[in-house]
Amino acid sequence: MAKGDPGGTTRSRRATPRSRKGAAGDPALVQLLTPEGERIDSATGPDGTEYRVDFTDEEYRGLYRDLVLVRKLDAEATALQRQGELGLWASLLGQEAAQVGSGRALRTQDMAFPTYREHGVLYCRGIDPIMPLGLFRGVDQGGWDPNEFKFNMYTIVIGAQTLHATGYAMGITIDGKTGTDDGEAAIAYFGDGATSQGDVNEAFVWASVFNAPLVFFCQNNQYAISEPLERQTRVPLYQRAAGFGFPGVRVDGNDVLATYAVTRTALDNARLGQGPSLIEAYTYRMGAHTTSDDPTRYRIASEVEAWQAKDPIARVKVFLEKQKIADADFFAEIDEQARRESVHLRERVLAMPDPEPVTMFDHVYPNGSPLLDEQRAKFSRYMESFEGSAH
Amino acid sequence: MATETLTIGKALNTGLRRALENDPKVIIMGEDVGKLGGVFRITDGLQKDFGDQRVIDTPLAESGIIGTAVGLAIRGYRPVCEIQFDGFVYPAYDQIVSQVAKMHYRSGGRLSIPMVIRIPFGGGIGAVEHHSESPEAYFAHTAGLKVVTCSNPQDAYVMIQQAIASDDPIVFLEPKRRYWEKGQVDLDAPLSDAYPLHSARVVRPGTDATVLAYGPMVRTCLEAATAAAEDGRELEVIDLRSLSPLDLTAAYESVKRTGRAVVVHEAPSNIGLGAELAARITEECFYSLESPVLRVTGFDIPYPAARVEEEFLPDLDRVLDAVDRTFGW
Known about the structure:
By secondary structure, chain A is α/β, with parallel strands linked by helices. Chain A is built from 14 helices and 9 strands. Chain A has 2 domains: 20-350, Rossmann fold, CATH 3.40.50.970; 359-391. Chain B has 2 domains: 3-193, Thiamin diphosphate (ThDP)-binding fold, Pyr/PP domains (Rossmann fold, 3-Layer(aba) Sandwich), CATH 3.40.50.970; 201-327, Rossmann fold. Chain B has helices at 8-22, 46-50, 62-74, 93-100, 103-106, 136-140, 153-165, 217-230, 249-258, 273-285, 309-312, 316-327, and strands spanning 3-7, 26-30, 55-57, 78-82, 116-121, 146-149, 170-175, 182-186, 201-204, 209-213, 235-239, 242-244, 261-268, 294-298. In chain B, strands 3-2-4-5-7-6-12 form a 7-stranded mixed β-sheet, with helices on both faces. Chain B has a 5-stranded mixed β-sheet with strand order 9-11-10-13-14, sandwiched between helices. In chain B, helix 2 (46-50) links the parallel strand 2 (26-30) and strand 3 (55-57). Chain B is globular. Chain A: It is an enzyme of class 1 (oxidoreductase).
């Protein structure tokens, strides 16, 4: 029986994540900040690359602020869903460091292709955090401009966006925007489950043979809804890259410093013309896949507790305290800011109007369609036929 | 006026060349489109003249062709993807239906995916399975996609350029059994004026019954009309050209005049384009109809072995038989 499988037998319930072998095995991972808050000066990747970061105190405090705000806004969205204000929510709880670390490593000109869970990256791109809530509330399909923020629309079909990112990166090459310091790169976000998809494997092939300036950023959060990593792979995911002909590295996805360092290096390599790479951010989804599933059905409490001890925010806090980079006032101020922003978010979500029904016909075709225009006109007349209609 | 006699295949090739010349953002991509020039040679010579960054030989994976083209389109390019055969488009179906078709809508109009997906479609060339299918209904059913097909060299030349210039994602179906048929092509034909991409066309005027067809069946129907004329019946033949959106103005006008309509396509009848056409014509022309709208189609079976495909495909006799039946009501 697979370790970590909820199974139901006494024996499996005693299993701990530490005893996992095979697929999830290979504990070697790039880490610059331990769960206990100890700083590690540098770490070496599987190909010998040395990773380190050198942040100012202000930058350290900034990362902490990001992590706390992102977690708080996510918690607010989860609460809104529980109160019936959102149809669904895909929480990032536990994955804040993977998202903030990689998101902050992006340069303005880099283009990101997210899944539906990348609220932390979205936040780092400077997009109003209310934007994805429109999608999950059902009032729009997500309202930001992908070109303005260099952050594409959320993609719900698993892995489809990795091909979009690859094509976009091919375009960067054709535009001649690699090989210089101000070059561009793209980053594709996906999860462990997505690595089983054909599209992701095709993206690996394409990116490799076209030497695309692209970073594949896999957040291995250990579960694809209920299916554990063992159902997706028998080899550590980062090792797959070798078979496609580009480097792969596993980073502690709960370590914001290491995630930042690894992503920045991979993006720099890409923009300098060295082609794609795969980052496996080894992390854990602390909540449900979405608000519609019940993780207690498929995973055991001890496993969740073990990951709780690796919390991505707690370790930064310990580090900041130990190094006297931040004091109690700072932490209180951040908490207060997070509270204010989440209240503000809530107020704005509740005020989000339903769209005018006739707008559902908008933006189907850039050039329009006579048959659709006719259907819209009929629908409008139908709506107007109701007594007292404001339409 | 520069007029040349070209096959449909060569007309498409010439149209693609024009598009590459006129817009540096146009990129052709697909399996074997480079050195080989495509298995039907539609992209013959283009890589040689425009380079391997404009005419890209891709790895052998259809979802990858379409999915990467989406990214190129987001980047500002206008990809023209070749799917080698109709029956090979299904691995790319998810990307086409869930991504290409919906990206504009999903982004509230902020993104456009000006992509053309070229698919040689239909039977009649004696091929093995997966090489003779008519998948148009799958795509025509999907909002956000437009679906067009040509039936002669002039349209092939103009329509492929119009499709590439359009910001809409377009599935461009090429009637592969007609690739080698020749016709006059005006190489200076305007792209926007005479025949907009989404307009149907009366290709043979007539008074007694209306025959609606597209792609490879247009020629079959024209031959049927010639034969019918010998029997004293004047059939009006309409080439739909656009399958989504359908341009039914000419069809309605025609049917109201003739009182009879026959729809002809190779694809199986069940939930096919013929059903949509019959329903719309019935709604719009009910009081003018002398008989029900009839369909002549492929059968509701997988495309059969080549040695019986002539029985599967609608031919002149089956079209004339249907015309006879419309007069028998």
